[in-house]
Backbone:
């Protein structure tokens, strides 16, 4: 606390990201990064950007990347917004589209950055409980609101909603913006981008951090009606004209172009996930059905916090949340086959004593 801080700073509850350990000999299954490196073609274009041209500001509109996203999803460039990670895109959406007199709605178990943005931008919100089996029931969102946001697949549960449910929600909710945060959609489920031409209040947000192996580059984007995008541009151009640097613009555009590498790596991750689910169940875990690059699991006898601590002693880190309802779950990122095998081996020992 400091008397020099603005009033709002005293009231903030900042987001706490998963640990990024300084030592490199750990099996890191705690922040849903991709276990595979970026496409070699992406690394090539990044090297090319490390040149004299860095003297110059990047394109403030990141047109190269917008056009790559527009081509990839068959939408117009005016329906695309890009930002410094999807966290920044989300921040602009909270400020520019979801801050209304009526409350924003989101699930009780969800991405923990949402209440943080509500604190920062002074957005009133109401929490909608997931069902007993940790699903989103879209009918529960049929109440007065100034906006609705949730991830699909949801985080940290991994549970996915079919597109028909999202469409039912949009049909029932036409007067406020619905944001679908699709950070994990490439690992299971259908993108709601297919619905943006039909529903002017739908904004779909995705990231290059998970399925595109580029968490370190910081690139996210949104697709929606031109009016929603224009609103986001107004916020962006009132905050930072150049949120994406030259590396981010070129690297992300190439990541979309190299479809073969993307398909190959995501298929491996999906197959490893399915194998790991079976192995965890054999070890006595109850595993929620996952459409992400992680699983959310609780053990029938051992406490999650103890399992996490024992794994850490064995140089494996997973994520444990202390929030009510999920404090006995572990969120485990899908690593390489070898990393998951090491996890299963460590768990076998940990669960025996
Ligand atoms: C990882 C994640 C993000 C943030 O992604 P960045 O693009 O790295 O900022 C947003 N939403 C959810 C649900 C996530 O899991």
Residues:
């Amino acid at each position: 606390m400091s008397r020099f801080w603005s009033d709002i700073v005293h009231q903030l509850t900042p987001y706490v990201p998963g640990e990024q350990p300084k030592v490199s000999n750990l099996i890191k299954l705690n922040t849903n990064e991709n276990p595979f490196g970026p496409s070699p073609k992406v690394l090539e274009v990044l090297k090319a950007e490390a040149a004299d041209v860095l003297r110059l500001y990047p394109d403030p509109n990141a047109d190269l990347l917008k056009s790559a996203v527009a081509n990839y999803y068959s939408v117009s460039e005016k329906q695309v917004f890009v930002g410094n990670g999807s966290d920044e895109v989300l921040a602009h959406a909270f400020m520019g589209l979801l801050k209304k007199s009526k409350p924003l709605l989101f699930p009780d178990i969800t991405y923990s950055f949402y209440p943080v943005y509500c604190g920062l931008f002074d957005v009133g919100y109401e929490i909608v409980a997931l069902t007993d089996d940790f699903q989103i029931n879209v009918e529960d969102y049929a109440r007065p609101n100034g906006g609705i946001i949730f991830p699909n697949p949801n985080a940290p549960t991994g549970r996915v909603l079919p597109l028909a449910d999202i469409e039912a929600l949009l049909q029932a909710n036409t007067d406020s913006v619905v944001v679908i945060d699709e950070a994990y959609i490439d690992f299971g489920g259908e993108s709601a981008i297919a619905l943006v031409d039909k529903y002017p209040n739908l904004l779909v947000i995705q990231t290059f951090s998970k399925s595109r192996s580029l968490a370190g580059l910081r690139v996210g984007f949104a697709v929606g009606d031109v009016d929603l995008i224009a609103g986001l541009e107004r916020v962006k151009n009132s905050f930072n004209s150049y949120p994406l640097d030259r590396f981010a613009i070129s690297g992300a555009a190439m990541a979309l172009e190299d479809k073969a590498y993307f398909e190959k790596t995501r298929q491996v991750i999906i197959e490893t996930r399915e194998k790991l689910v079976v192995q965890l169940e054999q070890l006595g875990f109850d595993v929620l059905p996952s459409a992400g690059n992680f699983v959310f699991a609780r053990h029938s006898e051992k406490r999650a916090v103890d399992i996490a601590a024992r794994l850490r002693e064995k140089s494996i880190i997973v994520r444990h949340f202390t929030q009510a309802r999920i404090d006995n779950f572990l969120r485990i990122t899908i690593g390489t086959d070898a990393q998951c095998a090491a996890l299963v081996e460590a768990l076998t020992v940990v669960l025996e004593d």
Summary: Residues 256 and 299 are 38 Å apart (CA to CA). The chain is about 35% helix and 15% strand.
